[in-house]
Amino acid sequence: MVGDSLLALFLAAFDILVFASGGIDPEVPGPAWYVAVPIDLAVVAPLVFRRKRPLIAAYAAYFISYAHSALDLGVSGLAALAISLYSVQVYVGRKQGLIYGGAFVVAMVVTAIVKPEPSMAAQLLFSAFTIAFCWLLGEFMYARRAYQRELEARLHLLETERDQAARIAVAEERGRIARELHDVVAHSVSVMVVQADGAALALKSNPELAGRALGTISETGRGALGELRRLLDVLRNDRGDDEPRVPQPDATALGDLAERMRAAGVPVDLALGDGLDELPAGVSLGIYRIVQESLTNTLKHAGAGASAAVRVQRTGDDVEVLVRDDGAGRARQLQQVGANGTAPQTGSARQPAPRLSVAGGNGLIGMRERAHVYGGTLEVGPAVGGGWQVRAVLPVRLNS
C-alpha cells in the first residue's frame, strides 16, 4: 500500500499543479479550488486499496472519474481508470476485467458525446490504446501469477508427498525392525525357556540330558545375540560403508531351523520342494520367518509331546507354506475319548495347552504382514482332525 499511496499522491499532485497553473485550457475558466482539489484527491484515493479491494477501488475510481473528466481537471482520472483495469485483470480475473474494460469504453463514449471537441478522435484513439495496453499487461501478469500459484501448489504438494513418503518409510522400517526383533527374540527365548525347564527337571535324574539342554541354551543365546547385534549395527551405522554383513536366513536354511526345533523337543517332519534356492531374497526370508514363527508357536503353545510337519512347495509362480502340528496329541485324545467313553482327566500329560487365537498377537500380525507385503495370503486356525495349521501362499516375482 505504500507504493500505491505514493503513486496516488503523484497523480494528485500533477493534476493540482495543472490546476494551479491555469488548467488544461487557460482560456476556459475552471472550478473553484475547493471543488477541484477534493475531486483530484478523490479520483486517485481508491488506488491505495487496489490490491486489497480491487473491484471496490476500481468502480469507485470509475464513478468519480466522470466528474473529474467533466471538469477537465487533468489526466489522473484516465490514469486511475487504466490502473484500475490492470488491477481488476490481475487480482480478480478475466471476466471481471472484460466487464470493467467495457465500462471503461462506455465512459470514453459518453465523454465524447457530452463534450464533442475537434481533438476528440485523437483522445479516443489514445484511450483505446491505453485500454488495450493495460488489458494486455494485466493479462500477462495474470498468467504469470497463475503460473506462480501453480508452481507453489505443486511445490507444496511435493513437500507434502515427500513428508508423507518419509513417514511411511519410517513406519515401514519400524515395522520391519519390529518383525525381525520379534522373530529373533521370540523364537530363541522360547527355545531357551523350554530347554531350561527340561534341564531343571532332568538335572538330578539325567545329568547328561540336562547338560545337552544347557548346551542348546548357550548356542541359541549366542545366535540370538549375534542377530540382535547385526540389527543394532544396521541401525547405528549411518556411514554407508561396506562392512561385511551376516546374511539373512532364507528358505534353504529351513533344515537348520528344523534341527534346532528337534533339539528343543519338537519333532519336525520337513519336506521341501524344488526351486526354493531361486526365490527372491525377500520372499525367501518371508518363508523362513513364517515357518520359524509357526514352529515357535508350536513350541510355546502346543504342549508336551507335540510334533509338527512343514511342507514348502513351489508351484508355478506361487510358493505354498504349510505348517501343521498335532496340538499335543489332541487327535489322540479324541480317539481315547471315543474308545474309552470317558474324557481325559484334568492335569493329564496329554492335556493341550491354550492355543493362539485367530486374531493373534505380534507373531501372527508379523506373519500376515510378511505375507501381504508380497501380495500373498495367510490362513491360521485349527486343523481338521485336531491341531493347529498355518498356511501361506506367496507369489514369486523374479523380475521385481
From TrEMBL:
Domain Signal transduction histidine kinase subgroup 3 dimerisation and phosphoacceptor: 173-237
Catalytic activity: ATP + protein L-histidine = ADP + protein N-phospho-L-histidine
Organism expressing this protein natively: Amycolatopsis echigonensis
Cellular component GO terms, alphabetical: membrane
Domain DUF7134: 4-145
Listed InterPro entries: DUF7134, HATPase_C_sf, HATPase_dom, Sensor_HK_TwoCompSys, Sig_transdc_His_kin_sub3_dim/P
Polar residues bias spans: 334-349
One function term, GO molecular function aspect: protein dimerization activity
Protein name per Swiss-Prot or TrEMBL: histidine kinase
Alphabetized PANTHER family for the sequence: NITRATE/NITRITE SENSOR PROTEIN NARX-RELATED, NITRATE_NITRITE SENSOR PROTEIN NARQ
Domain Histidine kinase/HSP90-like ATPase: 283-397
Pfam families with a match to the protein in the record: DUF7134, HATPase_c, HisKA_3
Keywords: ATP-binding, Kinase, Membrane, Nucleotide-binding, Phosphoprotein, Transferase, Transmembrane, Transmembrane helix, Two-component regulatory system
CDD domains on file: HATPase_UhpB-NarQ-NarX-like
Keyword Kinase: yes
Region (Disordered): 334-356
Membrane-spanning ranges: 32-49, 70-92, 98-114, 121-142
Enzyme nomenclature, EC number: 2.7.13.3
Matches recorded under Gene3D superfamilies: 1.20.5.1930, Histidine kinase-like ATPase, C-terminal domain
